[in-house]
Amino acid sequence: MSSFFSTSSTSSSSSGSAGSTLAEFGWDDAFDRAFAAHRSAGLVPARIVRVDRGQCDVATESGPVRAGSSAVASPDPVHSPCTGDWAALRTGSDPQLVALLPRRSAIVRSGADRSSRGQALAANIDTAVVAVSLADPLNPGRIERLLALAWDSGARPVLALTKQDLADPSGADAVQAEVAALAPGVDTVVTSAATGVGLDVLTAVAYGTTVLLGPSGAGKSTLANALLGDEVLATGAVRAQDGKGRHTTVHRELLLLPGGGVLIDTPGLRGIGLQDAADGLEQVFAEIEQLAQECAFRDCGHGAEPDCAVQRAIHTGQLSERRLDSYRKLLRESSWAASRSDARMRAGRTDQQKSITRHLRATYRFRERRQ
After folding, report:
1. Is 82 one of the annotated binding-site residues?
2. Can you tell me the distance from the alpha carbon of 310 to that of 347, in angstroms, rounded to the nearest whole number?
3. Would the annotation count 218 as a binding residue?
4. Is 215 part of any known ligand binding site?
């Protein structure tokens, strides 16, 4: 059973007790206006706390409810209910979610099966905290991927450098400088859940609905517990043989923070495929986008073209070759996913048109036999 429903083991601030109001979960006037038609139909607003197969744990004004979700299920995982969604709930002896409100933002990655379908990880988020462990070797490409995912969601990214107490002090400044260079325009906070370093700063820069993103072993659940002020989420040690973390978080779950706002913890992301994240990549690689404006050719590929400002920056040391290679790789991946998605939608429209045509032909044949 979700910790959201376990008031005996968690404080009321993090368990979503019956005394919690919808405003504490992020409900505001804009959502209220969007819900007007549902309210007139006798439905009540609810925020999805956790998703299971065919069922959801939701928060309502009168307390937590377990509700069926088959009516809002979709064959496309992006449009299926996910943690953070606001929904219209039909109450009674058999509570059911009957509609989802339009999302303001969503973390969407490519499906784990590498298909053209994406997967929504969390919805209606305001702050996306990307957790990076200072106790592990830095992986610039992974950080750039996660930041692109965060920027493209519509939320505000924040980098949390975790496990400061386990980091090598002699190289801490260099690592922090390198991370800052990977994240232009992003607040970076050095934290330690063990000592409490940086937790007040992280709490100050994260607002509204906050989602934690990062690979297994980055310390997300430990950091979440520190922010929640209680051991709400299970944590596990990193494996010594390969430095990888165990998936101690297996569900995405929404919890109330004691100082206001809500937190969504997510399972570790080992596969971080980008799903049409061009806007996010523009933010992550803002310096390349800016340099490209100075290239002689508008469609410059930043290779052997004459008077290329990007290549000039590489030659002068202003930009690294690795950074450009990463930008190209992620842009190709994002474009490929976008084209696959477009092709799938076109195929879907074609199948629908064929079905309509077959139905019309059958109708005509039926009429001809009747004449």
Report:
1. no
2. 39
3. yes
4. yes
Statement: residue 17 has pLDDT above 60: no
**243 annotated ligand-binding residue:** no
128 annotated as a binding-site residue? no
Is 170 labelled as part of a ligand binding site? no
Residue 163 in marked binding region: yes
Do 324 and 302 contact (CB within 8 A), yes or no? yes
In this predicted model, what pLDDT tens digit does every residue of 288-339 receive, in sequence order?
Answer: 999 999 999 988 999 889 999 999 999 999 999 999 999 999 999 888 877 7
Nearest to 134 by CA among 178, 103, 100, 95: 178
Burial category of 88 from C-beta neighbours within 10 Å (exposed 0-12, middle 13-18, buried 19 and up): buried
Most confident region among 2-6, 85-89, 353-357 by mean pLDDT: 85-89
164 annotated among ligand-binding-site residues: yes
The pLDDT assigned to 217 comes to: 87
pTM: 0.81
Asked if residue 91 belongs to a known ligand binding site, the reply is no
Q: Which CATH number fits domain 111-265: 3.40.50.300, 3.90.1010.10, 2.40.50.90, 2.40.160.60?
A: 3.40.50.300
The CATH architecture of the domain made up of 3-100 is Beta Barrel (2.40)
Task: Give residue limits of the domains in the chain.
Answer: 3-100, 111-265
Token duo for residue 75? 């064959």
Distance of CA 365 to the CA centre of its chain: 51
